[in-house]
Amino acid sequence: LPVQSAITHPRPGAAVPAGELTVKGYAWSGGGREVVRVDVSLDGGRTWRVARLTGERPVPGRAWAWALWELQAPVP
User: Fold this and answer.
1) CA distance 1 to 24
2) Which terminal residue of the chain, N or C, has fewer Cβ atoms less than 10 Å from its own Cβ?
3) What's this model's pTM, rounded to 2 decimal places?
4) Domain-wise residue ranges, the chain
5) SS3 per residue for 13-51
6) pLDDT, tens digit, 9 for 90 and up, residues 15-58
7) Residue 62 pLDDT > 90, yes or no?
């Protein structure tokens, strides 16, 4: 399966103040394959940033759960 991902924070439609924002989410790839990278676009795909994977790393070939990620992003 292609990698699937979801943003869990902030909630859709949430008002966020200008400054630094932490965006969080999860990703999974299926078939026991590990997620090794998550790219996040906050402007409809014009630019992309690499998120930091958090939490424990799975044993190779045994990645049967989602991977948590987060990204620090500037908010104009």
Assistant:
1) 22
2) C
3) 0.82
4) 3-75
5) CCCCCCEEEEEEEEEECCCCCCCCCCEECCCCCCCCEEC
6) 998 999 999 999 988 777 788 899 999 888 999 999 999 977 76
7) no
